[in-house]
Amino acid sequence: MANNSMEAxxxxxxxxxxxxxxxxxxxxxxxxWTWYLFLLPSFLGILLFxxxxxxxxxxxxxxxxxxxxxxxxxxDNFRTVLNSSTFWNSVWNTFYIGIFQVIITIPLGFIFAxxxxxxxxxxxxxxxxxxxxxxxxxxxxxxxxQFVFHPEMGIVxxxxxxxxxxxxxxxxxxxxxxxxxxxxxxxxxxxFVIIICLANLQSIPTEMYEAAKIDGASGMQxxxxxxxxxxxxxxxxxxxxxxIGALQRFNEVYVIGGPxxxxxxxxxxxxxxxxxxxxTGFEFGIASxxxxxxxIIILIFTFxxxxxxxxxx
Length: 313
Fold this sequence. Notes:
Layout: H1 2-10, H2 13-60, E1 63-65, E2 70-72, H3 76-82, H4 85-118, H5 123-135, H6 138-148, H7 155-162, H8 174-201, H9 206-214, H10 219-227, H11 232-247, H12 251-257, H13 270-280, H14 284-309
Antiparallel strand pairs: 1-2
Helix pairs in contact: 2-14, 3-14, 4-8, 4-11, 4-13, 5-8, 6-8, 6-12, 11-14, 13-14
């Protein structure tokens, strides 16, 4: 009798559902651990190649190190970098190139996007054509620009000479080398700006334009009072991402002018300065200190841009 009552209790619906819930939870836990196992290689890669280098660089910034011998120096590396005229020259070059890249590319890309959005046919064709530079390797583009802007054999100076205009030295002249890099940066980034602006333009309700037409607004008035105000979020996004990328500029200036930003350090950026001190001069402590100073500069200007644009993160 006792055994029968126990079996009846075990087959009670409540106990059966409790067992099912327990089994389901156990299966879910084992399934979760299986997914974590698959994610483990990615986590290890992030730890080894991102997290560890960040903390190792922070540690090295307090040491005088050539890669083998280390001596603790405290804040001396930071003082050396902040008192270096070469570093501040690289900061000036970085900001000069970055400012003109942003103030030229964003308005120009917006105008091109508006024109592409207004054509009845061929939008996809123009999207592809303008976006091609953005998917082109910046290293390959920099090498091509060296030939295009060559002072003697370049096609740009050939055209200018044919038109009877002055032919600058471009990358061989400290006075014009920055503008060569600016033109390269504008050419490479403008496709991205156009695509982002087009995405926002196509999301503006057509009813707003139809209502404006009924009220007698001209095409220019619609552009100024409907299109432009609805693009403020996109402009803020492009401004922030453009600044972050500009302050980290390295690849193209390294290809064109090497780690010292030739000619006469006229195009050496903060990234190139860090590379020169770390991998050319084997001053890893100074390079690490310069890296964190650059990080602070980027952080400050990103915060300022967020405040100016009133963009929430």
